């Protein structure tokens, strides 16, 4: 039995239920580790938004991920080495990046109906690597739903994995800055897609399509994106996929300058941009794949009850099954009381957390 607990609500003695990865993909804490006060302070200092812990009172037994922990750790590590090689002026080792995409594809094709439920487990310092791996995995999932071939998916996946490689040219302190950016800093950040394109074009192993994903992932259908203000079909098909997944993962992630946005709010924001800023066919696939209220999420119902999401119906992902833990007076509920929101139209979710 597990549940996702924000870092500021962890207590000494809590037992880790899912592995915690560092910025380079190394495991910092393994399942079964008992958290001490020191380790909780360390997690907070590193910027972890939360941890999955064991909870005998939670009805949630597991939260499946799009890719396995081993695949994720290997991909983060390979990407970390890629950035380090660039920083040191060395040549990128391209083959391991394709290996990571093949491993992701194997995981995805073995569980083609997986629903995205997992909470965010990244550090601030590890954001770029964890984010890029998430974007690659989700892009592959949506590309598969759109009918791309394996060859096309490999191209899409590598481009998605390297979409932010141009950030190597941006000072780390700018990327981690808590306050507003200066106009000069903002202009530098707006150029990271072009810088990424220039880096990737140096390697014959990376196709033009891969480079264009890096170049165009911040473009928008209405021309409001950057760096070139492209519109409509002038934006590469793969870049249109990565653009949607990139904004989804970025908004739902905690950053040094803002907290994470709840998943249901992220999805609503993206839905509003369908057809104007984002490719509607991509948005539709994302909405079908992502649970607005992920399994393990604590919610306050309009009844005043507090519960945890234990199931997400395939046909009504925004109306989950909630096990009630506390009654409106805040007292623990005895026995198993379930609210099946798909069948109880008069009951809704007031807020998350």
Question: If you had to describe this structure to a student in words, what would you say it looks like?
Answer:
By secondary structure, this protein is α+β, with helices and mostly antiparallel strands. It folds into 3 domains: 2-54, Alpha-Beta Complex (Molybdopterin biosynthesis moea protein, domain 2); 69-289, Hypothetical protein af1432 (Orthogonal Bundle), CATH 1.10.3210; 298-352, no CATH class. It has 12 helices and 9 strands. It has helices at 37-46, 69-87, 95-110, 127-145, 150-161, 172-175, 183-190, 192-200, 208-216, 237-251, 263-273, 280-289; strands at 2-6, 20-21, 27-29, 50-54, 298-301, 306-311, 321-326, 332-340, 349-352. Strands 8-7-6-5-9 form a 5-stranded antiparallel β-sheet, with no helix packed on it. Strands 1-4 form a two-stranded antiparallel ribbon. A hairpin with a 4-residue loop joins strand 5 and strand 6 (306-311). Helix 4 crosses helix 10 (237-251). The longest helix is centred in the first third of the chain and has 19 residues, at 69-87. The chain is globular, with a radius of gyration of 20 Å.
């Amino acid at each position: 039995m597990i549940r996702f607990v924000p870092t500021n609500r962890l207590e000494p003695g809590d037992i880790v239920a899912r592995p915690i990865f560092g910025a380079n993909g190394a495991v910092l804490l393994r399942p079964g580790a008992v958290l001490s006060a020191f380790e909780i302070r360390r997690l907070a200092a590193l910027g972890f938004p939360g941890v999955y812990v064991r909870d005998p009172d939670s009805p949630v037994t597991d939260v499946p991920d799009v890719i396995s922990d081993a695949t994720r750790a290997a991909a983060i590590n390979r990407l970390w080495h890629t950035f380090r090689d660039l920083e040191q002026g060395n040549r990128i080792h391209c083959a391991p990046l394709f290996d990571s995409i093949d491993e992701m594809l194997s995981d995805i094709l073995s569980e083609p109906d997986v629903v995205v439920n997992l909470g965010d487990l990244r550090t601030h310092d590890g954001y770029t690597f964890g984010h890029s791996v998430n974007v690659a995995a989700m892009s592959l999932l949506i590309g598969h739903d759109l009918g791309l071939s394996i060859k096309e998916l490999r191209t899409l996946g590598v481009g998605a994995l390297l979409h932010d490689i141009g950030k190597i040219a941006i000072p780390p302190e700018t990327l981690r800055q808590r306050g507003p950016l200066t106009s000069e800093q903002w202009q530098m950040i707006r150029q990271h897609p072009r810088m990424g394109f220039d880096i990737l074009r140096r390697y014959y192993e990376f196709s033009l399509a891969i480079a264009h994903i890096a170049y165009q992932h911040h473009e928008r259908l209405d021309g409001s994106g950057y760096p070139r203000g492209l519109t409509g079909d002038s934006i590469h098909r793969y870049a249109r996929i990565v653009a949607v997944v990139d904004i989804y993962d970025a908004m739902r992630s905690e950053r040094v300058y803002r907290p994470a946005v709840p998943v249901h709010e992220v999805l609503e924001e993206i839905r509003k941009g369908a057809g104007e800023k984002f490719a509607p066919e991509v948005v539709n696939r994302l909405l079908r794949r992502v649970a607005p209220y992920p399994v393990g999420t604590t919610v306050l119902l309009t009844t005043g009850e507090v519960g945890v999401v234990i199931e997400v119906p395939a046909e009504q992902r925004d109306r989950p099954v909630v096990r009630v833990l506390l009654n409106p007076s805040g007292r623990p509920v005895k026995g198993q009381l379930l609210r099946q929101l798909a069948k109880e139209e008069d009951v809704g979710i007031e807020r998350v957390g």
